[in-house]
Prior knowledge:
The structure is a single chain. With 541 residues, this protein is α/β, with parallel strands linked by helices. The protein contains 21 helices and eight strands. The strands form two sheets. Strands 3, 4, 5, 6, 7 and 8 form a six-stranded mixed beta sheet that branches. Strand 7 and strand 8 form a beta hairpin.
Amino acid sequence: MIDTLSKKKTDKIFSIGPLSEVLIATAFSMLFTALYAIFAGQDINWDQRNYHIYSVYAWISNTTHWHIAPGQIQSWFNPLGYVLHYFAVQHFQPVIAGAFIGSLAGLNGGVIYTLVRNLIDGPVWFARSIGILCTIISLSASQFLSETGTTFIDNFVSIPTLIAVTLLAVCSVKKQNIRNLLLIYLISGFLFGAAAGLKLTMLIYAVAGATTLIILWRSLRLEPSIFIGFTVGIGIGYLATGGFWAIELWQEYKSPLFPFYNAIFHSPYYEQTNFSARHFAPNGLLDAISYPFQWLIGKQPAAQVPIRDGRLATFLLLLVIVTLHTIKSKTAEHESQTINVLAQKFLLTFFFVSFAVWISMFAIHRYFIPGELLIGILLFICIDRLVANYKGKVITLVLLTLFFLVHTEVSNWGRIPYGNSWYGMETQVANDAPSTIVMLGHPLHPYSYIVPFFPNTRFIRINSNINIDPNRGLGAKAKAVIERSETVAIVTPSKLSDLDRRKLDQFGLRIDESQCKELTNRIDRFFVCPAVHVGPKGSEN
């Protein structure tokens, strides 16, 4: 029999387990994700070409509000989370940049191993084995791997989120004095808030964390001061990483979340409406429950790219079996558990609340990467309740790991072979670039990544996924800029469409298509055409 909770309790803030193990697990995880990034190829995902690179460049060059919507509606996202990725793309050889960005994702593996190692009670070989297997299951998940080596930051902001979960889960089973407990909850809240400040969609997990604590209030024996410390931590964390950006947007546009939620903030620069991204939302409860099983068979109701992943479906099936087994045996606890019941309750509650908030708010699969990374230990919780001996538990988890490795199909956001340059535009920029470039083309064609190659040129995108009306708001500002510009050119990644021509007419521009020249790089081909303004002169807003 396994003696549950045989480890000695401590009044100290818990250690992270054997430090050497954690460091080794982290190093191997980072090596794996770096090598995977090299193997997968150079990232050219849609969002990178649309705003990941542009937003950081504009921020550090103080031109965010000088240019007008080159990255479309995403032009005003907080750039802080993308700084490391931008630095790598701009200053490293592409393959080195990819490996570096990939290695950052591997930090998640170190956190997962730490979480498992601190919760497992049993022989060292057993705890290590489960830690390794759970880490492998997490790091080989489809959405996580699909972002490894890319400029997406979902598997980067997941790191502070998982650390917060680890702190809360471990301190729930290891006794702390009130002072240490307050500090742990404050730090956890700060990490949840900091992740949300970097990327607003991470508010999912701050909400889930707070909700979980409320649900388990009695079990955790929380004091009001502890919960207050947690919520204060969330606020401080959010302000630490997102506060500066909210202030900047407020000063420039009178909205801290511009252009989003403008039906609430009423910025004069955008329509009085709330942008919604719920095109992947389920049609009711049964449809929501079906999502994991659709992923299992290769459908992608919540994914923007093809996916096949059976982790969540397998976990749900095992959880049903555990529930039926518990009902049949008429006991709440299986005698061979190696994870404390309270830790199980915390992880399970946090996961399901996160899933509920995620699917009701967004249902975009990559926003659920933190939940996906917890599947390894959740699977083990089920195995722990069903299998009685150490070897059986390990063997069962090994078999599941092998199944996932064989069955999983990793999503692809767009990759090309690594070359000598990330975009291949360095030698093509003309010294006589116009003072203003007007960007055209279908809104689904992103290309603000070209902006840094024209440092003295102002970019204005008038055909975009954000409405640029020349008679009001941003559109009026854009029209005034165009009218005052000494030289204007248009750039488009395709031949001019009827919509492009209508937009040019609205902004008083005319071009001679016979004067257009081609500009090519490793990703796109552009047409650059000189333009003249045919409307009355105006003054810039």
